[in-house]
Records
---
Amino acid sequence: MRNHTIAIQGAAASFHDLAAKKYFGQEVTTLECGSFREVCDKIAHNKADYGVIAIENRVAGSILLNYQLIQQYNLRVIGEVYLPIELQLLANPGVQLTDIREIISHPMALGQSQLFLSGMEAVTVTEYKDTATSAKLLVEGKSKTMAVIGGPAVGKQYGLEVLVDNVCDVKHNYTRFYILSKGDNYVEHPDKASVMIETYNEPGLLSDALVIIKSNKLNLTKIQSVPVPDKNNVYAFHLDIEFDDFNSFKKTIQELEKITKLLKILGQYKKQTPETEIQVKSDLHKNLI
């Protein structure tokens, strides 16, 4: 089997890199991208076989742009990964906490560390491409006044020291990632699906859709409204649905098609659980470095 190329947002040891290796294996080839859009573009134009993008974090919430990108590039969701997130304040060797005048990181990492950052007076907080690229900037510039918020893997990869451990706002934090493909990938016995619907502009139709899902005994684990860029005051709804019986899922889709303006199955895959990922987070970070 040939080694697939996986597009990721960020550099080596970033959370996207960890998620890609967790799903595809340690020997996978990753293609580093500067943005989520670039990840999707690489897949769409056959520069990468698959891609990994974060879709939601337990603290910072959903990334609406990524829902839109999946639609714009007509990509398929073929899997998911829940990655436990540990965040530390990292700096070059010898730097003290009192030396820090600027903290940089990916917006999602900063968003998950608001309580810690609120206590860092007279320190500038700067959004940057991703945690790993932020660390590279720190190391290459040999900065004595800058720190980065990132995971343990970033610190080990770039030789940084931990100034403050556990800066995340909550314990047991995790990020959920979608595994994306340009085409369909057959998954034997799928038990989860991502579906996009647009309802007609009539009162109660979204409620009717939810009743259909409930009546067929499916588990709606996520509902996210997403603005449709080229349609004023129109929202699509992204649904993540778990099921034990695939025939019940097919029946649900048939019923939903009768009451929705547009319905698209974005992918069918095997569900994962954040609880399992949190339990093994220490082993995960050790094994990936």
Note: DSSP finds eleven helices and 15 strands in the chain.
---
Amino acid sequence: MHHSEGTGYPILGLRRLLRDIYTMVKAKNSRNLMMIHMSAHDLMPALSFSDVILDGEHIAARKWDCSEYWKMLNLEEFRGEIYGRQWGPAPMYLSTVGYKKGCLEAYAPSEYVLSYALIHDVLLWGRFTDDIMGRVYAVYDQFGVKDASFVPYWKSGRYAKVESNGGPSSHVKASIYTNKGQTPNRTLLIVSNLGQAEEDVTIKLDFAALGYSSPPKVRAFAIDSATHESNELPHDGRISLHLPGYTFRLVGID
């Protein structure tokens, strides 16, 4: 690939170099993982020789402050570039929350990053506020996420429909981890509001499609509490949630 200034980017040369490095890494131990830090591009002819691709550091160069992290991300960019799973390697997002002084003392930026990453099943690299990741992963462990199947929000409609004011919500998305067919049968919903305005939503759950023969227990988890507090939700196949802008909720079914 050549630029008008006369400089070149040797794609095939880089591909050969990374292929050789990948071969050496795996020859040492087949269980070794190779991660490529590749912020701002998805150059898959080269990145295909990797297990994990790390993206997102270029976002730190944008103009933002702790109260306006929402200016940094948009759904199209995250799903199109940072998600990356359609190409094979596991995607990892490099959070820039810790790059700005004072941001780790504010809860909102960390929560907004997770609102995007969790509904895309994207791994996270970086510093976050008040052990928020530890609290999320405690709930993940409780619901067997490591052995579950991931259903992203663009495919989850057969299990859970998110509605607001009688119609589909434009900003609130729900992705699902399901252990359908396993014992115990556990399901975890990640519900994210990617819009600035707060929303009251109704989620219609198809328990039969999720593999439950009788109505299960449904719980919402407070990840902003060190106690991992959960509240059982009343439901008739529907649950109601209030989500402030740029936040997420974890909802467990078991």
Note: The helical segments are 11-28, 44-47, 75-82, 107-119, 132-142.
---
Amino acid sequence: MHRLRILVVITVTMLVLLVSGQALAQGDSIVIKIAGKESKLENISLGKEGWDSVRYKVSSGPGSRWQDEPTENVVDVIHGNQPQRFSNAEKYRKNGNWKSAVQEYQGCIKHERKEWVKIYAQYYLAESLRMWGKTEPSKREEAIKEFEVFKSKYSDHRFIPSALYGLGLVAQATGNTGKAKNAFDDLGGGKYGQSWEVRGQYYSILLTGGSVSKLEKLISKARRLGMNDIVAAARLGLAQALLKNTKYRDAMKKFKEIVSDPEGVGKEVLAAAHNGLGDCYVKLGSREDDKKKALFEYLKVVTLYASARDEYIYALGKAIDLLGEIGGDAYKDRIADLRKELANTKR
């Protein structure tokens, strides 16, 4: 009887260990979107994640086989059994803790053995540096370097169009328009699917002066694809092109369309549209009423869109100038506060 109890205890313990081991062993997952409908396949085996297709196997049984899904349909890929260091890096990145994310991704590249971990860590290291660079401009050059490392090592990976996009954005932010245009032209060539093609073409158009006719065609194409963020950004680019071409009333109309329908429009686009409206009021006349309307638009950006750093800095400078013109000594305290904020933001 005593021996039987021991055998029962051992058997139960083994079953508990087996079940808990199965619970801890997480399979890979893939999220696919076709005709607007998403589906998630769990506990699969992942193969090559190429820029054109992602290979996966639903089960490991006798009847299982590898399948290739066009990368354009793949919304997300989740690798199971992630190393703790990589999980930590992901948590920091999603929480916007760029410094800690960068450190953990660097650790993954240096110490982890799984190839997919190194690939993902290299891409997200570059992307985290790009995002960090929005508040710490000194990180932008580091981001460019890491994106270029990714390009040279993993040019056939599904992240390559995202890396080109990130490289173009951060190069543009540093003023390196040549490098930015090369990245956007590569993206806009059509190799990586229609969505990336439209995105690349949009930024290439902006870098070459923002042709009104090209932007209008691009807006129509983006609308057909349901790319609302590009529609909003291209509408902004169109308004800015009209402003640049001194068509101030036409530009004002376009800026007003953007700010009057803010749903789905990013903060940076909205901030730029308010600044554009302010610029239009300044250009349209020298009356004090126009200056007050302009000041109102710039102060909206100062009040509501501090996270859109470049637009925020621009609005601060314009507001300081207009407060001095309109009110002089009456606004000296407010001007002093804004100058202090401008100096702190530029650091």
Note: The first strand starts at residue 28 and ends at 34.
